[in-house]
Amino acid sequence: MNKYLTQLYGYFRFGGSALGAAKGTQSNLPGVSLVEDVPATNVDAALQISAVYRGLEILASVVATMPIMVYDNVNGKRTLARDSALWYLLHESPNSRMTPVEFWTAMRLNEKLRGNAYARIQRNPETGIAEALWPMPADQVELRILDDGSEVYFYRIGTDVAALASENVLHIKGMGNGTIGLSRLDYMRATIGEVKNSQNAANKLFANGGKPTGVLMVDRVLDKTQRAALKVNFSEMAEGSLSRLHVLEADMKYQQINLSPEDLELLSTRKYSVEELGRWLGIPGILLNQTEGTTTLGSSSGDIIDSFYKLTVRPDVTNIEQAIRKRVMTSAQRVRQTAEYNMDALLRASLKDRVEIYAKQVQNALKNRNEVRQLENDEPYAGGELFTVQSNLLPVDMLGKVKPSGATNEPATIAQ
């Protein structure tokens, strides 16, 4: 079927290219434009909008600064695999040039803007275990589906092109058809264009010191030369310059033109754009320093952080964890190891709240004392690995059978 007929068919079937599946080169761009004559915005231009830059910085840094923990699973027991190659790769050093924060920040920016984050997996030629992850800019990667259904990634660097099999590429996909993520930046094109136009209008308005153009009135008719001279001499009055005081002669009067209703609404339009961009990025407006209005996510900062964690961060983290398991880990690693983000840093409560939670966990044998000390970066101590419970809660049939401890502080025992 002709390519254009295919696009037309997909459009009237309500699916469009966003949900369509096809062989060959995969596209993650919208097949039609919601608003006509809105040009595409590249990454460099989008990042000059403060709400976009700050929103992406939050989405990238929150996940990038959370450590990825690797565990060994042996007979149902999980232990930290600090000596494993996977731990070193994900937790310590993804490659010889980047720290984990730098690597995951780059990956998050690509995924959130372009819908896809790619990293080339450098594997040990003998064991197949991943030894390094090298990020590849999404704009330089092309995904093709071959006739046999296999995936091939083409990475372009200048005039060089590298073809990579799917097992050698960590592909983190945003929302899409399961094969490729949709390019968020292109789908939010109309909103970006609106924000860009309002920012341009604001710059033009306030470039003159916030003063609109005025009218200089005189009591006689001027020729062309005199009009030009007056414009030059008194142009700073319209431009809002405070450099000098102007003296009007011969009954001249200057009348400033008031701001139009459209100009007065410009500031509120720009404030609304912060909320709109936050909606696209999945970030509450208050986290983008929007102080006006109300939020449906809760009235306290704790409610907002909790909702942001549940609705945005947790799904993103799960997506990355599953991509690592599917693409980075070998089949042997998947049997005995797991890689998970440690969310404690994000959800970390105040010291008072943490102590109360730890006390309840220790008293009910949910954690031992050394596990609690590890969470607080304290050294373990001998005997701290034992699980203990309070003895004042007993079954009803044991009442009266407990022998109280004596003055020697010996533990209570059940009478025989």
Low-confidence stretches: 5-15
**Form type:** extended
Helix content bin: 40-55%
Strand numbers in spatial order across the main sheet: 1-6-7-8
Structural classification: alpha+beta
Q: What is the typical, i.e. mean, pLDDT?
A: 80
Give me the Rg, rounded: 32 Å
Q: How much β-strand is present in the residues?
A: 15-25%
Number of helices, counting only DSSP H or I runs of 4 residues or more? 17
Main beta sheet: strand number and arrangement? 4 strands, antiparallel
Number of strands: 14
N- to C-terminal distance: 87 Å
Could you describe the 3D structure shown?
With 416 residues, the protein is of the alpha+beta class. It is 41% helix and 16% strand. Helix 8 packs antiparallel against helix 12. The protein is extended. 18% of the residues are buried.
Note the topology:
Elements: H1 3-12, H2 16-19, E1 24-25, H3 43-46, H4 50-64, E2 68-74, E3 77-80, H5 85-92, H6 100-114, E4 116-123, E5 130-136, E6 141-145, E7 151-157, E8 160-165, E9 169-173, H7 184-187, H8 189-206, E10 214-217, H9 224-233, H10 235-239, E11 253-256, H11 261-264, H12 266-281, H13 301-328, H14 331-336, E12 337-341, H15 344-347, H16 351-363, H17 369-375, E13 402-403, E14 413-414
Antiparallel strand pairs: 1-6, 2-3, 2-12, 4-5, 4-9, 6-7, 7-8, 10-11, 13-14
Helix pairs in contact: 4-6, 4-12, 8-12
Could you list some keywords that capture this structure?
alpha+beta; 4-stranded antiparallel beta sheet; 3-stranded antiparallel beta sheet; 41% helix
